[in-house]
Amino acid sequence: MMRKLAVVSLALALACLSSNLAAQARPVTLGVALASDTNPFYIQVKRGIDAKAKELGWNVSYVSANEVAATQNDGIGDLIAKRVDAIIVSPIDSVAVAPSYDAAARAGIPIVSVVRTVQSPSQRVAVTGNFQKIGLDTGRWMAKAIGGAGKVAMIGGPAGADLFRNFGMGFKAGIREHKGVSVVFEKEGPLTREFGLRMAEDILVAHPDIRGIYCGNDEQALGAAQAVAAVGKQGEIVITGSNAVPAALRAVKAGAIAMTVDLRPFAWGQLGTSTVARLLNGESLPAVVDIDYALIDKTTVDQALQGPK
Predict the structure, then answer these.
(1) pLDDT tens across 137-190, in order?
(2) Residue 220 in contact with residue 240, Cβ under 8 Å?
(3) Domain 27-129+265-291 is classified in which CATH homologous superfamily?
(4) Which pTM value belongs to this model?
(5) Which residues contact 25 (CB under 8 A, 6 or more apart)?
(6) Is residue 308's pLDDT more than 90?
(7) CA 302 from chain center: how many Å?
(8) Extents of the domains making up the chain
(9) Measuring CA to CA, which residue among 187, 70, 173 is closest to residue 130?
C-alpha cells in the first residue's frame, strides 16, 4: 500500500513539474494596439517592436485602430480575451481608452503605454518623451528661423491626445519668449497630409503674411508644404513637423520643410518591448521612461538621411 502511494505521489510530482516546465517553455505573447497602422511613424514603431520580440522569442498579436478610440478599445478587449501576457498601447485618447487599461489590470495583464499616455492608474509604465520640452525647443527654433518677428500658425494633432496638447503648450512657451512673434491661427485635427494641406490653404488665405507653420507631425507638414509651394512661397514660410519619416527628411533636404523632430520611432518600439520584458521579469520600473530626440534641419539632414529609417 505504501509503495502504491509513493508511486502515485511521484507521478503527481512529475506531472506538476512537467506542467511548470511547459508553462515556462511557452513563448510570451505580446498584444499591441497602436494608434495607427498607416502612419509612417507607427510603421517604424511596429518594426522596432517586431525586431525586439523576435530577439526575445516572443509572439506578437496586433489589433488595428487607425485613430478611432472606440475601435482601439474593442481591440484591447480582444487581446484581453486572448489572454496575452502583456499589452503595449499607444492610446488614441488619454481619457477614452482608460477603461481598457483598467480591464487589462483586472485580468492581471500588465499594460504599457508607448509614445502617448493615458490617464489611468492601471498604466504600469509610460515609454514616452518630454513633449513640452520638445515643443519648447521647436518654438524657440521657429522663432529664431523667422528672425524673432512675425505671425505663425499651429496645425495640431488630435485634441484628445495628451502628447499633442503638451507639444503645443511647449511650442507656445517657446514662441512667447519672443515678443515679436504671435500665434494667429490654431486648429487641432487628424495627423494626415490632407488635413495639413487644407489647413495651410485656409491659413494662406486668412494670413497671406504668415511667416511660420507649426505642424503636429510630418504628414501634416508635408501637406502644408504642398499648399505653400502651390502659391510660390516655398522657402519663404518656415514649416516644422515631427517624426523625421523618410519623406520629411527628403523634404528638409529639398527646402520644402524647414525642420522635423526625430523621435526615433524604431528605437521607441524596441524600448517599449524591452520595458515589457523587464516588467514580466518582476523588475521595479519608474512610472515614466523617456526617449531622446533630435531636431533635424538643413545642417543635420544629410546625416539623418544616412541613418536607419
Answers:
(1) 999 999 999 999 999 999 999 987 888 999 999 999 999 999 999 999 999 999
(2) no
(3) Response regulator (3.40.50.2300)
(4) 0.79
(5) none
(6) no
(7) 24
(8) 27-129+265-291, 131-262
(9) 173
